[in-house]
Amino acid sequence: MAAMRSSEFGDLVQIKKQLISIIAQCKERGLVHSVKCAGAHRGQSGGLKPLALSEELEDARDLDALCLAKSHFELKEYDRAAYFLRGCRSQKAYFLYMYSRYLSGEKKKDDETVDSLGPLEKGQVRNEALRELRVELSKKHSAGELDGFGLYLYGVVLRKLDLLKEAVEIFVAATHALPLHWGSWLELCNLITNIEMLKSLSLPECWVRDFFMAHMFTELQMIKEALQKYQSLMEAGFAKSTYIISQIAVAYHNIRGEGYLQKVHKPKSGNSSMLLLIRVFCCPLTGNYYSLRSQHEKAALYFQRALKLNPRCLGAWTLMGHEYMEMKNTSAAIQAYRHAIEVNKRDYRAWYGLGQTYEILKMPFYSLYYYRKAHHLRPNDSRMLVALGECYEKLSQQVEAKKCYWRAYSVGDVERMALLKLAKLHEQLNESDDAAQCYIIYIQDIFSCGEQLEHAEVSTALRYLGQYYFKNKLYDEASLCAQRCCDYNDAREEGKALLRQISAVREQGEPSSTDLSLPSVFNPLINTTTPVRRASPLDLSSGTP
């Protein structure tokens, strides 16, 4: 990506004028979230004094109707607002007319929404006004009569209708027509799926693009690039921007560097933007506190408060879904996760949460659908792969399950469950050599990481390996496993019994097998380019519990 264009940030006075202008334009059109975003930049752009705002010329014929409609709009009486704006000709009045109709449809959709247990695409209730709005906006667009705000609304309508390719094109056009409207950039951000798609877009050359690129890097988990971009923005004159501070906190959170959040909890007196930011941060944090204390109703309440402050607060929707799951309210959990996905389709946690919800409802086909979505977004996350493996097992697709478990181990199994599940699956299929190989690698990994032998499933692995070695007449190895089994309450009696069996066999003079190797295993699960770790016979003599 191109380096920071310093010339674009040379005149901070001009940037502040632009921000003041866009704030006024967004406010007049009821775009409250765009007002807040622009206001965060305006309040911290170099500590400049307030600048006078020139009044925009407005069509006098629309002024009375516009004022009346705005009063109804602010009371969320969208149908009445649209009624008084019919026939108005100015761009401002036309946008508010169409936007009121859109919000009216959204409000009715929310009122009529019923809980659905089908996949998101099939079960979602739609805004009935969308198709009419699309037809009218399409005609205006073809005639070249839509300004930047009109293009933005047209793109939102297309996105809501799942016409994503067309929506991307319109949002790109909106950024060219009105580069300072952050809402268009954010909508575009939610539709970009990878870095290749990002590079392919023809975006306007302006200072807002740098904010967008930093935001996209964070969304695409390119944390190093995101932090570098935000650092450049801070050096260019936005060092006190509450937006940048919060985005850096998000970036560090994605790499578990949560200590940076301390910086956003130290507002300067009189800084209302920072105080609002802290309120937005503190509600989810308080919710997490109550969640950890298993007070799930209180936790959900604070996540709801966070959403009142910012309805597009992605984390709050997802976390609220988790709390509803804990309260066994699966319908509410599904709706919360779906809201999170509507805000950002790249939220793997919401897709994963939906998979878990349908798993609880014993609907493995639906679980598989959502887990696949989560895995697509986090291909190297072992949790997604293990969840997929479990779904495939329930659907009797053992080969696919094996692939998922092995892949989960290969990418770094954070929960140390993949090999165990793979070993148990091999057991069920009577693939004893493969099961033994998995258990051996599992125990070797436990020792190599210096973990204690009371790890949950070590005794399970030792029990199986003891019997496996005994059946293959490897009595020394079987004896070692049996001795270690005696260190665990749940395996002690089996260990003692196996030691007695070994003693009886040896007293009869039966020799041990001279074959000390195990099969290479996993051949059917990997291709020839995948590295395979061959495990030697289990050596527990050097391990310390």
Automatic annotation (TrEMBL):
Gene3D superfamilies: Tetratricopeptide repeat domain. TPR repeats lie at residues 314-347. Belongs to the APC8/CDC23 family. One of its GO terms (cellular component) is anaphase-promoting complex. GO terms for biological process: anaphase-promoting complex-dependent catabolic process; cell division; positive regulation of mitotic metaphase/anaphase transition; protein ubiquitination. It comes from the Eukaryota. It holds the Pfam family ANAPC8. This is Cyclosome subunit 8. Residues 56-249 form the Cdc23 domain.
